[in-house]
Write a structure and sequence with these properties.
The protein has one domain: Rossmann fold (3-Layer(aba) Sandwich). Helices cover 39% and strands 25% of the residues. The chain has helices at residues 2-14, 19-28, 45-54, 83-93, 134-141, 143-148, 176-189, 209-217, 227-237, 268-288; strands at residues 38-41, 56-61, 64-69, 72-77, 100-109, 122-131, 150-153, 168-172, 194-201, 220-224, 240-249. It is globular, with a radius of gyration of 20 Å.
C-alpha cells in the first residue's frame, strides 16, 4: 500500500518534468538550469577537492559544484573512474546548456624509445584509442560515428594471440582549438607539457608487459580510463572536449609502477597542481571559444 502511494506521488511529480529533465536529475541530482556552459570533470576525489577548494562563490546543487575560477563561471562534477561513468555524465550534460567539458585528472605514462617521460609530467591527449567497453556500444548504435572515426588493428595482436577483446580499435579526438589553448597556456607554466597519443582502457590491473610493449609499438605515451569516451561523446553531442592530465605512475617501470611498488614519486603532487593551474589559467580563452 505504502509503495503504491509512493509510486503515485512520484509519477504525479514526473508529469511536470520532460524526459530530458528527468534524466538530468537522475544523473546529476539537480536541474539542467543549474549546470554552467563550462564543466570541469575530475575523476578522482583528491583532484576534485583541489579544484573545489579554489572555487569562489561556491554553490552546491546535487553533484554539481558551481562557482568562479579565474573570473569564469564553471561547474565542477566528480565523474568517478571509467568510461561508463563519463558516458552517464555526458548524457546528462548534453541535456543542459553545456558547451565545453574539460577533464582535469590523473593518468599513467608509457615510456617511449625516443622521448623520456616522468611522473609529474603534464600530458594533453592528441587522440585516445577506444579500447574500453563503452565506446564500441556508442559506435555500434550511431552509424555516423562508424563513417567518421578511423581505426587500427589492436597492436596487441602482433605480440600475443587475442581470442577476446577489441580486435579493431577506433580512436576519438578532442576539440583541436581547445587542445591548442591548453598547450599554449601550458607552455607558459610548464615548458615540459606534451601533446601525445593516449590509450583508454577499462582494466587498470591488466597492464601486462605485452600490453605495454604493444602501446610502445604505436608510440602511445599516455594511458587513462576516461578520455576516449569523453572525446567520442563530445563529437556525437557537439560539445567541445579536451583533457589535461598529470602522470602519477609509469606502468612497467621498476620503481614507479602503481601495481608493483609503494613508492610515490616526489613530483607527483607537483604535476597534479600544475595541470590544475594550467586549466584554470586557460579558462578565459576557453570561454571565448563559446559561440
Amino acid at each position: 500500500m505504502l509503495n503504491n502511494i509512493k509510486s503515485q506521488l512520484l509519477n504525479f511529480g514526473l508529469k511536470f518534468l520532460s524526459v530530458d529533465d528527468k534524466i538530468v536529475r537522475m544523473l546529476l541530482e539537480t536541474a539542467s538550469s543549474n549546470v554552467n556552459e563550462i564543466v570541469i570533470l575530475p575523476a578522482v576525489k583528491p583532484v576534485m577537492k583541489k579544484l573545489v577548494k579554489k572555487l569562489q562563490n561556491k554553490v552546491v546543487r546535487g553533484r554539481v559544484y558551481n562557482g568562479i575560477l579565474n573570473g569564469i563561471r564553471v561547474s565542477i562534477i566528480l565523474s568517478n573512474v571509467g568510461c561508463p561513468n563519463i558516458a552517464m555524465i555526458m548524457e546528462g550534460l548534453k541535456r543542459c546548456k553545456t558547451k565545453v567539458v574539460l577533464r582535469v585528472d590523473l593518468c599513467g605514462g608509457i615510456q617511449g624509445k625516443e622521448e623520456e617521460i616522468y611522473v609529474g609530467d603534464v600530458l594533453v591527449p592528441r587522440l585516445s584509442y577506444c579500447d574500453d567497453g563503452t565506446c564500441p556500444q556508442y559506435i555500434r548504435s550511431n552509424a555516423s560515428l562508424q563513417s567518421l572515426l578511423k581505426s587500427i588493428n589492436n597492436p596487441l595482436k602482433m605480440i600475443q594471440n587475442m581470442d577476446t577483446g577489441n580486435q579493431i580499435v577506433y580512436f576519438s579526438k578532442p576539440n583541436e582549438t581547445l587542445t591548442e589553448v591548453l598547450m599554449k597556456t601550458g607552455r607558459t607554466i610548464n615548458p615540459r607539457i606534451k601533446e601525445v597519443d593516449f590509450w583508454t582502457t577499462d582494466a587498470l590491473f591488466c597492464e601486462t608487459d605485452e600490453f605495454i610493449r604493444s602501446l610502445q609499438s604505436i608510440n602511445v605515451q599516455g594511458i587513462d580510463m576516461e578520455s576516449s569516451a569523453l572525446f567520442l561523446l563530445g563529437t556525437l553531442f557537439n560539445i567541445k572536449t579536451a583533457s589535461i592530465l598529470a602522470i602519477t605512475d609509469l606502468p612497467g617501470h621498476p620503481k614507479y609502477d602503481l601495481l608493483t611498488t609503494n613508492e610515490l614519486h616526489p613530483n607527483m603532487e607537483k604535476g597534479i597542481d600544475e595541470a590544475i593551474k594550467i586549466a584554470i589559467e586557460a579558462l578565459p580563452k576557453i570561454k571565448s571559444l563559446i559561440a
